[in-house]
């Protein structure tokens, strides 16, 4: 039996079963070439009838009976076929672009009724910096001690499915600081402009904020300490 005859018989079985048939419009990449069959119907040419001759009536072909093996093959081929997208080529879903995440750490100290924040700029907090904060804390509240709290590290995870941008970092830092503010510690001292930028203009509700030069700048330039004291003096406890 020829390929055309096989294809006609397969389509007849599927049509009798009420199963839709799909044929690709073009050869798919990596797939075997699709065998397409164009079935043309034509009226048989008949010779002119002689006068008085009876017309020739074509014999009626008996209905096709589907052998079980061929029917199973037709069903399998139809099940594997999928309707083609209406677009010329299905759009591929591009993987999400990896975020560019800025990593930073903020040291947090508590002294004199304030939280002191210092962006570490990739360097560990030096003993001299802690001693400087302790001295400024005592200037605000005589006899105050200094306590080093856990530093804030960003990002806190590496899940690229979540927002790791600067706004998310500022909000997370804001929440982190709110947990450390108590009735006896209601203000923030932001040491350096880089530390200020980490908060993104946010601050825990009802918290007072003072902005001083960074501790490394205060240690390197003694004249800045007088400027810092002028900002601290109005908040000193007497």
Overview of the molecule:
By secondary structure, the chain is α/β, with parallel strands linked by helices. The longest helix is centred in the first third of the chain and has 15 residues, at 3-17. The protein contains seven helices and five strands, in the order H-H-E-E-H-E-H-E-H-E-H-H. The chain is 33% helix and 14% strand. The protein has a five-stranded mixed sheet with strand order 3-1-2-4-5, sandwiched between helices. A hairpin with a 2-residue loop joins strand 1 and strand 2 (114-119). It starts with a helix and ends in a 6-residue tail after the last helix.
How do the strands and helices of this protein lay out in sequence?
Blueprint: H1 3-17, H2 68-80, E1 104-111, E2 114-119, H3 127-140, E3 146-154, H4 166-180, E4 187-191, H5 193-198, E5 208-212, H6 215-220, H7 223-232
Parallel strand pairs: 2-4, 4-5
Antiparallel strand pairs: 1-2, 1-3
Distance between the termini: 109 Å
Helix/strand class: alpha/beta
| Fraction of helical residues | 25-40%
Percent strand: 5-15%
